[in-house]
Fold this sequence. Notes:
Blueprint (H helix, E strand, L loop, with lengths): L12 H14 L12 H8 L3 H13 L3 E4 L3 E4 L32 H15 L13 H15 L8 E4 L2 H11 L5 E6 L3 H9 L3 E8 L2 E2 L1 H6 L4 E4 L13 H13 L3 E5 L15 H4 L5 E6 L11 E4 L2 H11 L8 H12 L2 H30 L1
Parallel strand pairs: 4-5, 4-7, 7-8, 8-9
Antiparallel strand pairs: 1-2, 3-10, 5-6, 9-10
Helix pairs in contact: 1-3, 2-3, 4-12, 5-12, 6-7
Family: In the C-terminal section; belongs to the class-I pyridoxal-phosphate-dependent aminotransferase family.
GO molecular function: DNA binding; DNA-binding transcription factor activity; pyridoxal phosphate binding; transaminase activity
Protein name: GntR family transcriptional regulator / MocR family aminotransferase
Amino acid sequence: MNYHIDTRSSVPAYMQLYKFIKQDILSEVYPYGSRLPSKRTIAEETGVSVVTVEHAIALLSEEGYIETRQRSGCFVIYNKSDFHGTPLLKSITFPEIQPQSSSVGDFPFSVFAKTMRKVLNHYGNRIFVKSPNSGCDELRTEICLYLARSRGIFVKPSQIIVGSGAEYLYGLIAQLFRDRKKFALEQPSYDKIRKVYEAMGIQCDMLSMTQDGIASKELERTDATVLHVTPFNSFPSGVTAGISKKHEYLRWAKQRDGFIIEDNYDSELTVSKKPEDPLFSITTDSNVVYVNTFSKTIAPSMRIGYMILPEKLLEDFQRRLGFYSCTVPVFEQLVLAELLRNGDFERHINRVRRKKRKAVNAVGNDGLNNEKSF
């Protein structure tokens, strides 16, 4: 393994190792079915501890690149061509439930109130000025910085469009791609997605799901050229697309000169130690529009969402839709920008994720204890 771990880098050693191994898997240095060197061998050849290797291996396993087999080692399960034969979820009845609002009070009220006062004192009556149509520069810049350090998404502020929640942004997307006329959606999916698109005159083709995402046969069947997906924790199925399925989505878009709408409303709250890799950060073809919202991560009343447009769509968007005024008040944008800038938002996300991990571990431990009691 010719990996150089930079001990002076701000990137943790396990993340550097994770990226090296992932790249070798994607490049088929380690092809499908092959066995990775042992943890001890990797540690010796890279000069890191076995614990560091275990952290990297855990991330690769969580994301579906490898599989750990007891007493046998770690084997590559990522396969570029392995996308067929996954059974449809026809026999599964998905629960008839409404999307849960995040618990009111999850975000520390005292922190939020302090930030509001700070923004009022700093900006004064400038909060009464009309927002630029795409959103305040302060917020768009902070979103870019946050995405770069937390999600591996590197974009310019000009690519960020701010709006009052995901539903408003769906409407803009429908108008942007109105010439394509038909969108493909997950079945089942959050029903408002379909309702917004149909209200805008878009025909929706509902594609059946498997336990790993949209069925390959369904992707082949549809003649839509826009695909709206929720790769992480899709509602209401709870399905999370593996890395192979994500690459299948990207190839689907490339083959038909199409676009993917990546709806990542819940991905920041994963229990994984590393957030899910968005399609936007994986693609090399500028064919993904990324949509996210702060309503889930801060509070339901924070009707602030944003989308990231590929640069090749910016001119078309501004020509067609650039006249729309931003629907989020300047004051709220500046408060959110400050929460992102001073780290309070990320500290909150990390607290929530730690809490969810503890809950998952507690359930797992209870299960083990119950098994031992028999």
